[in-house]
Amino acid sequence: MTAEQTVVTYGGAVNAALTRSLDERTETILFGEDVALPGGVFGITKGLQSSFGDRVFDTPISETAILGAAVGAAMMGRRPIVEIMWMDFTLVAMDQLVNQAANVSYLSRGNVKAPMTVRMQQGSQPGACAQHSQCLEALLTHIPGLRVCVPATPQDAYDLLLAAVWCNDPTIVIENRNLYFGKKVTIMVGHDVQEIGGSITRHRGNDVTLVTWGSMVAPSLEAAEILEIEGVTVDVIDARWLNPFDTLAVCESVTRTGRLAVVHEATLTGAFSSQVVAGVVEAGVPLVAPPVRIGSPDTRIPAAPSLLGAVVPNVSTIVEALRRMVTRED
Amino acid sequence: MTESLLDHYRVMWRIRLFEEKTRDLKVRGDVSGSVHLCIGQEAIAAGALGGLNRSVDVVFSTYRGHGYAIASGSDLTALFAEILGRGAGLNGGRGGSAYLSDPDNNFFGENSIVGAGAPHAVGAALAGLFDGSNRVALSAFGDGAMNQGAVHEAMNMAGAFGLPVIFLLENNRYSELTPITAMVGDVELYQRADSYGFEGIQIDGNDPTVVLDAVRSARDRAARGGGPTLIEAMTERLVGHYVGDVQQYRPAGEIDDAKTREPLVISAQKLLVQGFDDVELKSVETQERDRVASAASAALQLPFADPATALEFVYDS
Hints:
- The complex is a heterodimer.
- By secondary structure, chain A is α/β, with parallel strands linked by helices.
- Helices cover 37% and strands 21% of the residues of chain A.
- Chain A has helices at residues 10-24, 48-52, 63-75, 94-100, 104-107, 137-141, 154-166, 177-180, 217-229, 247-257, 272-282, 305-309, 315-329, and strands at residues 4-8, 28-32, 56-58, 79-84, 117-122, 147-149, 171-176, 185-189, 200-203, 208-212, 234-238, 241-243, 260-267, 292-296.
- In chain A, β10 (208-212), α9 and β11 (234-238) form a beta-alpha-beta unit.
- Chain A is globular.
- Chain B has one domain (5-301): Rossmann fold (3-Layer(aba) Sandwich).
- Chain B is built from eleven helices and seven strands.
- In chain B, strands 1-2-3-7-6 form a five-stranded parallel sheet, sandwiched between helices. Chain B has a two-stranded antiparallel ribbon with strand order 4-5.
- In chain B, a hairpin with a 2-residue loop joins β4 (174-175) and β5.
- In chain B, α2 (42-50) runs parallel beside α3 (66-72).
- The chains are: A alpha/beta, B alpha/beta.
- Chains A and B meet through α3, α4 and α5 of A and α5 and α6 of B.
């Protein structure tokens, strides 16, 4: 495949990566609820069944069977790509990820692998109920044996998904439905598939290191622009991969800035931000201000837009938290 | 080549004696962790493997799965070594008694989560539709697993897609420590297959020839595109759920009754009718006793799993 530019939404980029996976890796099969004939509830898998036939199929509403069948098929040498419609729904089938997929390589000492990719989307949206809103990435980053990525841009929606499919570990790709239908942008496709892992610094600065992922990347960048006008410059690191996590890049940045903020949509207790902070502190990187974690408070997620607005971090909560952080020291 | 009853008799003794030896090793402290023996249920594993195409078909079992490993052809020393936590064990000591596997012999393992292996068999069967193997996947589980959502989802998906899966239900009357009859509204578990759109049958799980015939028919149907089968093999556990289970929940005399109709007893009776004599049958037992004893001795000599390997293979390199 030759590298070329294309203009797509985030959702279109996911579709392009799935198309390429099915095309180049003939051992891939793609299945999930409503993904084939209907093309997915968000239209992300549209057209794949007509292009790839029986390798793309719908399943019953049975998350355990979907994930368990992916484990079994992967053990036989297939490379399943499955969709869990909402990340909240993984909770009814967590056994197949944690007790099953994550153990395959370890138990067999690498003789059997589970090279499966599990796509899902998470996050709040006004009106979505508490069972269709949660950001649960920390539940999976806690599990050795699983890989976890959280693409935030159309380019990463393409690249990270391909890396996940090519990877021989069970890999979770956490998308965000608020990003699916954003504006079309030009991305590169057809280039070499990346290895898993690696962060991207999306904004450069010397005063604060802000680590974020997924839905909070865009508001964090906006916050960085506002703060720059005020004379505070921010390194915004889009983690992209939570496992493997790019601790090195974060530590290098904090060594320069002396300040660490971590921003995510997930609720705070036990969140992956705690791990990011721990990683920096354990590495002995000197801090000139206490680290700050910005996330949703420890609450259930409400449906009403006015209530939701009081919960999920946004540009102003990020700006305010970083202002407090720099003035505290200055 | 069809295995004869004498072949089954030999494998069943191998399993029985392996399990008895494992119990002894557990009791004297050589085995760490829970051990679930299949004593009394040997005919199912011994018969089932004979009904499969061993070169392509795959097996998923429960934690009461030593018999499936043995019937699949696992090396007895490596099997003991796994249970004893030795580095040369089937899984390098990572699985133990309740979570071991032997993929080289198409035994994709025990599972310590009740019912969780059933969807794996569905996936293995699905894979066979694309890899040209004409594989049939056998998922063995107990009566308790029939009340797990994973088994329901697996059966429904297998039925919906007509997949080549054999669901082999070993009904030993107890879901762990509780009678299965107290935990279902309809005790005829095989009839659940009707609602999934495939055939369910109930058979004598203590007769390996009956098990073999049932599995072979199910295998033939699956390979022809006829979809899954649920085989309910009726049997009885002659021992506790785990080694150390005092079984105060079982009625007096139940196990003694069961011993009059257990697999080795009824197979010996049939073999005598077929013309074998006591000396020939005794010699099968003796040969297997020697084989098991020597495998256990060899395993006990092997070094424990090396702590330096504990973190290996969590991920692909």
